[in-house]
Amino acid sequence: MTALETVTRQLDQALGELREQADSRRYFHATYLRTTRAVAAELDAGGFLDTPWVQRWTAVFAGLYLTALSDARAGRPVPAPWAAAFAADPGLPPVRHVLLGMNAHINYDLPHALLQVISDAEFADPACLDRREADHRHIDQVLSTIVDQGGGLAWVNRLAVKRFLTEARAKVWRNAGVLAAARQRSGEDYQARSAELEQLAAARVTALTRPGPVLQQLAIGGFGVRLRPGGFFSRGGTR
User: Fold this and answer.
1) Which stretches in the chain have pLDDT values below 70?
2) Among the four residues 17, 20, 63, 68, which has the most C-beta atoms within 10 Å?
3) In this structure, is residue 228 part of a structural domain?
4) Whole domain around residue 35: which residue ranges?
5) Could you tell me the pTM of the whole model?
6) Inside any domain, residue 194
7) Structural domain tally of the chain?
8) Measured distance CA(179)–CA(231) in Å, rounded
9) Of 122, 132, 113, 106, nearest to 52 (Cα)?
10) Residues 176, 114: contact at Cβ < 8 Å?
C-alpha cells in the first residue's frame, strides 16, 4: 500500500468517526477526502508531470491535517490556524466550516508540505522547480472540478471560491519560496518565518469565524496570506 493509499484510508476511517459523533469538523473532512481521492484519480490518469513526487506530496499534505485533527481530538495543542478553525461555532453553516478548514490547510499546511518534498537543491534548480510548479498549478484544475460539482454552493459562489482558491495557492507557492530561503539561511530564521506564517494564517481563519457573509469577507481580505518578501520564486531567483 502506498503512502497516499494509507492516508486516504485514514481519512475515510476518521470521517466515519466524525459523522458518528456529529462533529462539525466532518464538513471540511468530507470535502478534503473527496479532494484527495480526486487527486489520486488524476494521478492514475497520468495528469501530472512527476507522478511519484505528487503522490508523496499529497500524502505529506494530508498527513499534516490528520496530525492536527488527531491532536485536537486528543486535547493536545495544534497550530494556531487549526486551533481557530476547530474552535469555530459548531452551529455555523456547513459551507463555513469547509472554508475555515480549507483556509487553515492551504495557507498554513501547504507551504510546509511543499518544503518537505522540495529539497534546497531542487529549489535552486530552475528546471526542477518549473516542473514542481506546473504540478502545483495542475491541482488548481482538480479543485476547480470539485467546486463545479456544487457542494451546496450557488453557481456565483462557486465562481468566487474557485477564484479565491487560485489566488491562495499562488501565494502558497511564493510563501514556500520564502520559507525555503529562510531554511537555507538558518534554523532560527526558518522558525521565525514559519511563526509569521502561522500568525497570518490564524488571523485569516479567525476573521472568517466572525458573523457576516463569508464570501464578501474573502472578497475584501482575500483567501490567501502573504509572507514578507525574501525567497526563491518560480525561476529559482531570490529577492
Assistant:
1) 150-160, 214-222, 230-239
2) 68
3) no
4) 3-221
5) 0.90
6) yes
7) 1
8) 7
9) 132
10) yes
Residue 85 lies in a domain: yes
CA distances from 107 to 14, 21, 163, 202, 219 (A): 23, 28, 15, 9, 16
pLDDT at 207: 87
- Contact predicate 172/110, CB 8 Å: yes
Amino acid at 55: Q
Q: Return the pLDDT at 166.
A: 84
| pLDDT for residue 223 | 74
How far apart CA 187 and CA 178 sit, in angstroms, is: 13
What is d(CA 116, CA 112) in angstroms, rounded to the nearest whole number?
6
Q: Angle at the Cα of 12 (from 10 to 77), degrees rounded to 5?
A: 55
The closest alpha carbon to 223, from 209, 204, 199, 203, belongs to: 204
Report the alpha-carbon distance of residue 68 to residue 186 in Å, rounded.
Answer: 26
